[in-house]
């Protein structure tokens, strides 16, 4: 038996996981994660768990390992991932702040993402990402 599938649950853990699965107000991702662990602890195989939960085997393996490493608390949180928008370099951030503080472009009442992208034409970046970045910098 693989160490990932050798899960021993205490009574407290088992009752907590069963409560999450049974509670209709539980987030569904928590419910199926708990169900994966409960089925594993009952000695069910990966194929059987896949059929019962509708999840891929890599998903099942991930949550079995997470439970083994971190216990029930590891099931309730997602891992943090990098943002899909890369962070601004310090130089670009300074230019955005400087432009913002200098006032809006001529004939405009405020900076728009499009106007900021045009003013920052030297580094290639999309208007949408510049708009998002400008909002983030303005709120900081």
The secondary structure category is: mainly alpha
Q: Uncertain regions: pLDDT < 50 for 5+ in a row?
A: none
Based on CA inertia axes, which overall geometry fits?
Answer: elongated
Number of domains: 2
- Using only C-alpha atoms, the radius of gyration works out to 24 Å
Number of DSSP E strands: 0
Give the termini distance in whole angstroms.
52 Å
Query: What helical percentage do the residues reach?
Result: 55-70%
By DSSP (H or I, 4+ residues per run), the number of helices equals 7
Task: Work out the strand percent.
Answer: under 5%
Nearest-integer average pLDDT: 84
Helix-strand layout with pairing:
Layout: H1 11-22, H2 28-41, H3 46-53, H4 57-70, H5 90-102, H6 113-119, H7 127-139
Brief account:
This protein is mostly helical.
What does this structure look like?
By secondary structure, the chain is mostly helical. The chain has two domains: 3-75, no CATH class; 90-139. Helices cover 58% and strands 0% of the residues. The protein contains seven helices and no strands. The protein has helices at residues 11-22, 28-41, 46-53, 57-70, 90-102, 113-119, 127-139. α2 crosses α4 (57-70) and α6 packs across α7. The protein is elongated. It starts with 10 loop residues before the first helix and ends with a helix. The relative contact order is 0.09. The model has no long low-confidence stretch (mean pLDDT 84).
